[in-house]
Amino acid sequence: MADRWQSTMDHAVAIARKAGEMVREALLADRKVETKSSSVDLVTQTDQKVEKMIIESVKEKFPGHRFIGEESVASGESCILSDLPTWIIDPIDGTTNFVHAFPFVAVSIGFSVNKQIEFGVVYSCLEDKMYTARRGRGAFCNGEPLQVSNQNDINQSIIATEFGSNRDPEAVDKIFSTLRKILCIPVHGVRGAGTAAINMCLVASGSVEAYYEIGIHVWDVAAGSLIVSEAGGVLMDVEGGEADMMSRRIVAANCATIAERVVKEITPFSPQRDDAPLEKN
């Protein structure tokens, strides 16, 4: 039986590499930075150019496919996940890292059919690490199989998270209240790469045991979520139960035991707590 989506995934890997080249070239040039809703919510011309390149390339090859892209949504397009084949794109996950040449910058491409992710591609441009996963066929980094950590003791774990772009004191207090609970479990440490996609790939690689965040978007987690689950990990909502990519919150972990303990310590608050643009219906 023919593999319906292999050529589609091959194209995603190819354009992720091309996007990575654009990012690396831009790092050598003057990086013109704009802000969205606050002084720390950044966007660059490279974000916009990369997304435009990806969408144009896909439209040419797969004219019937749909798109959800970070910069497109920021410009006013709708963020609706339908049953149709849909490319979910974050052209530069880790824009602040990119602006500062901090070495964790990713191109993230998820592909959904019937609201289910069929494949995920995360290219860590500056590390030259290509993370890929196909539903039911495993996860890989540069062609080598990925496997989550076998650690089931949260006291022996590293937990990853991020801090969003909202610098309102009340929001920051809630973030650090949750962080204090996690640290006081105690855990070995808390880390953050500055990009949701790479944080999830670190879970899949066995480098950290769990990652949680509230306020993210579907383009942040679409590809990484499949990479985690195909590497043997689990996904949960921050209040427990099944994860929903459109809910703007996630716990990704190596096992249910650690995921459930992270959930227990998180105090959920509004998923609109960050400054990213809200989805438009």
Automatic annotation (TrEMBL):
Hydrolase found in the keyword field: yes
This protein's name: Inositol-1-monophosphatase
Catalytic activity: beta-D-fructose 1-phosphate + H2O = D-fructose + phosphate; scyllo-inositol 1-phosphate + H2O = scyllo-inositol + phosphate; 1D-myo-inositol 5-phosphate + H2O = myo-inositol + phosphate; 1D-myo-inositol 1-phosphate + H2O = myo-inositol + phosphate
Gene responsible for this protein: LOC114458986
EC top class named in words: hydrolase
Gene3D superfamilies: 3.40.190.80, Fructose-1,6-Bisphosphatase, subunit A, domain 1
GO MF term (any one): metal ion binding
Binding, Mg(2+) 1: E70, I92
Assigned EC number: 3.1.3.25
Gene Ontology CC entries for this record: cytoplasm
Entry keyword set: Cytoplasm, Hydrolase, Lithium, Magnesium, Metal-binding
Compartments (UniProt record): Cytoplasm
Cofactors (names): Mg(2+)
Positions with a binding annotation for Mg(2+) 2: D90, D93, D220
Top-rank taxon, per record: Eukaryota
Pathway connected to this protein: Polyol metabolism; myo-inositol biosynthesis; myo-inositol from D-glucose 6-phosphate: step 2/2
Pfam families given in the database record: Inositol_P
Family designation: Belongs to the inositol monophosphatase superfamily.
The organism of origin for this protein: Gouania willdenowi
One example of a Gene Ontology biological process annotation: signal transduction
Subunit structure as annotated in this protein's UniProt entry: Homodimer.
